[in-house]
């Protein structure tokens, strides 16, 4: 598996990453959602450099020119609910992609112990297509794997790209062990650890709550 950590090179991505981490800026949920979306756009652009293209002749008012056009069939998938603004950023660029949605959540046994459950999936066929799974946080990696396994009910993708804004080292290692070799992981930052609640440290907190308000 190939791992691309985009924060290893300086770019505007780091500005948006700083803002989604910053406690005071997080209080503006509209800006938080917009920054998730903008990071999704940047990641979509970076991923687009690795995809397949074909030449098409484009007619202009003055003639024709050959242009390389994306030829891969893409299924863009996300995990409810925190993934929605991030997903929109990718969809802004991969605007002809098919879309898939998976509902995965933590069902707590007590304050520290929980299971990850998948309750809902809506997806087109993914056989031989490029599958993009986008979720802002890659903590333990369990929900990412469960989402992937659920999507496999609709076929086997040609290649898979996983995109997360912040990942834990533990989550990265989990994905490396549990996803096929033709998977590429894209992250904006890799943080050192998980706390006792399986939240990434230093991370940013609960991305879903910051984007959409606290849940009961």
Note down, in words, how this protein is organized.
The protein is an alpha/beta fold and 216 residues long. 32% of the residues lie in helices and 36% in strands. It has helices spanning 13-21, 23-26, 29-48, 83-93, 142-151, 169-178, 207-212; strands at 2-5, 53-60, 63-70, 74-80, 98-108, 114-122, 130-134, 137-138, 159-168, 183-191, 193-194, 200-201. Helix 1 runs antiparallel to helix 3 (29-48). The radius of gyration is 18 Å and the shape is globular.
Strand and helix layout:
Layout: E1 2-5, H1 13-21, H2 23-26, H3 29-48, E2 53-60, E3 63-70, E4 74-80, H4 83-93, E5 98-108, E6 114-122, E7 130-134, E8 137-138, H5 142-151, E9 159-168, H6 169-178, E10 183-191, E11 193-194, E12 200-201, H7 207-212
Parallel strand pairs: 1-10, 4-5, 4-7, 7-9, 8-9, 9-10
Antiparallel strand pairs: 2-3, 5-6, 11-12
Helix pairs in contact: 1-3, 3-4
């Amino acid at each position: 598996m190939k791992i691309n950590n985009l924060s290893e090179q300086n770019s505007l991505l780091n500005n948006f990453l700083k803002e989604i981490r910053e406690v005071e800026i997080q209080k503006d949920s509209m800006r938080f959602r917009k920054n998730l979306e903008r990071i999704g756009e940047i990641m979509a652009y970076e991923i687009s450099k690795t995809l397949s293209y074909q030449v098409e002749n484009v007619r202009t008012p003055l003639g024709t020119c050959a242009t390389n056009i994306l030829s891969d069939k893409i299924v863009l998938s996300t995990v409810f609910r925190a993934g929605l603004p991030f997903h929109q950023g990718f969809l802004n660029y991969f605007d002809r992609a098919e879309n898939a949605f998976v509902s995965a959540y933590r069902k707590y046994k007590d304050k520290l112990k929980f299971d990850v459950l998948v309750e809902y999936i809506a997806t087109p066929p993914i056989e031989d297509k490029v599958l993009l799974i986008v979720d802002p946080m890659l903590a333990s990696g369990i929900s990412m794997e469960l989402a992937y396994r659920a999507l496999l009910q609709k076929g086997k993708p040609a290649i898979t790209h996983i995109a997360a804004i912040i990942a834990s080292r533990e989550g990265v290692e989990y994905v490396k062990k549990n996803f096929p070799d033709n998977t590429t992981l894209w992250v904006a930052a890799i943080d050192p650890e998980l706390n006792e609640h399986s939240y990434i440290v230093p991370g940013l907190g609960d991305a879903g709550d910051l984007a959409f308000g606290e849940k009961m």
